[in-house]
Amino acid sequence: MEFTGNRLRQLSSKAVETLARIMDSEEATPTEQTRAAKIVLDSAFQVASQQDILDRLDELEKEAAEQNES
Predict the structure, then answer these.
(1) Dist. CA 15–CA 55, nearest whole Å
(2) pLDDT tens digits, residue range 11-26?
(3) 33: containing domain
(4) Contact of 46 with 33, CB cutoff 8 Å
(5) For residue 23, what are the contacts with CB-CB under 8 A and spacing of at least 6?
(6) What is the three-class DSSP state of 31?
(7) Given pLDDT bands bounded at 50, 70 and 90, which one contains residue 31?
(8) How many domains does the chain have?
């Protein structure tokens, strides 16, 4: 499973570059460009949401640790 996770992380950069090329391509149809843009925006929103959750979790863990020390 670790190999799969590492491989997906490696391929994610390539996938983002592919989406960027489609968005900027004069040969891509407006529908293709819009679809690529939507994928990028949806993914960015998911990453931001996940980071927010992780930040909140870190804060809760920090507060719990401080309460346990008291």
Answers:
(1) 26
(2) 999 999 999 999 999 9
(3) 2-69
(4) no
(5) 33, 36, 37, 40
(6) helix
(7) very high
(8) 1
